[in-house]
Write a structure and sequence with these properties.
This protein has nine helices and five strands. By secondary structure, it is of the alpha+beta class. Among the domains are: 69 residues, Arc Repressor Mutant, subunit A; 116 residues, Glutaredoxin, CATH 3.40.30.10. The longest helix has 19 residues. The chain is globular, with a radius of gyration of 23 Å. The protein binds FE2/S2 (inorganic) cluster (FES). FE2/S2 (inorganic) cluster binds next to α5.
């Protein structure tokens, strides 16, 4: 999506949001009633209602925000304040598949930066932009609490763990070609609109999808196992970079995180050894001092 497609505020009053077609409005009102009934105070239903309107149009439009305000007795300013605060709400039409590359600290140093750069080049889009066919929106995402599987890519909030620039490129090619892709763990992938409806609190109707959500993965559980004495203290899920750990006990296959290829095969720009005061005698105090100090 080019800059010219994006909403640009000129500081002028906007026309009232267009109305939903009657059939859509009736359906959304019935859904909203069901959502609101789950909460003791109706305004607590705002977050799921924003997901609900996102499931209709693929983003939270002004029409969607006006709908939420009407249903909950809020002002559109109050709804807008919430919708613009959380990054899971999109503010303009976007792709069927939101490909989020975690470039937060750990994923970045494990290859997330390299993945993001490769996908930008491969797809010909920048951050928060959509391919011309409307299939894929690429974006930076913050930590998704999956650091033990870094570097992580998420498609419509499903995990694709331990990615490389090559595997991520294959992933987006498969999405664009309409081939089935399987998340590393969790429920099967669905479109962004379908995901938004599930996030609004409606059941996932696909057979086996709920069961597939599963629990924590092996890489997340190893600390718990160590604490319980169920794993050898030296056990490692991933060995030190560039060397086979000596004197360490490998985790049993059922405990091992999926890790193909090795993270050493997809180094990011952050992987170069950093000088420390011990390795850089010319600058024993660490970072350079301010000029004049
Ligand atoms: S830094 Fe990427 S999931 Fe935490």
């Amino acid at each position: 999506m080019t800059a010219s497609n994006q909403e640009v505020s000129l500081g002028m009053p906007q026309l009232p949001a267009p109305a939903y077609p009657a059939e859509v409005l009736a359906r959304l009102e019935a859904d909203a009633k069901e959502v609101i009934a789950r909460y003791p105070g109706s305004r607590s239903a705002l977050l799921p209602l924003l997901h609900l309107v996102q499931s209709e149009e693929g983003y939270v439009s002004r029409t969607g925000m006006a709908f939420c305000a009407d249903q909950l007795g809020l002002t559109t300013a109050e709804v807008t304040a919430v919708a613009t605060f959380y990054t899971m709400y999109r503010r303009r039409p976007s792709g069927d598949y939101q490909v989020g590359v975690c470039t937060n600290t750990l994923c970045a140093v494990m290859g997330g930066d390299a993945i993001f750069d490769r996908l930008k080049e491969h797809l010909g889009v920048g951050n928060d932009e959509t391919t011309d066919d409307g299939k894929v929106t690429l974006e930076h995402i913050e930590c998704n609490a999956a650091c033990d599987f870094a570097p992580v890519v998420m498609v419509n909030w499903e995990f694709f763990d331990n990615q490389t620039p090559e595997s991520a490129t294959r992933l987006v090619d498969d999405l664009i070609a309409g081939r089935t892709v399987e998340p590393t763990r969790g429920a099967p992938l669905c479109t962004y609109k379908d995901t938004a409806r599930i996030l609004a609190g409606f059941p996932d109707p696909r057979p086996g999808a709920v069961e597939a959500s599963g629990g924590a993965g092996a890489a997340s559980l190893i600390g718990l196992k160590l604490a319980r004495g169920e794993a050898a203290p030296q056990a490692r899920v991933v060995g030190p970079r560039g060397e086979t750990p000596r004197g360490t006990k490998d985790v049993q296959p059922e405990d091992a995180a999926p890790h193909d290829p090795s993270p050493t095969e997809h180094l990011s720009s952050h992987d170069a050894p950093q000088k420390t005061s011990a390795s850089d005698p010319e600058h024993p105090a660490g970072p350079a001092a301010e000029e004049g100090e």
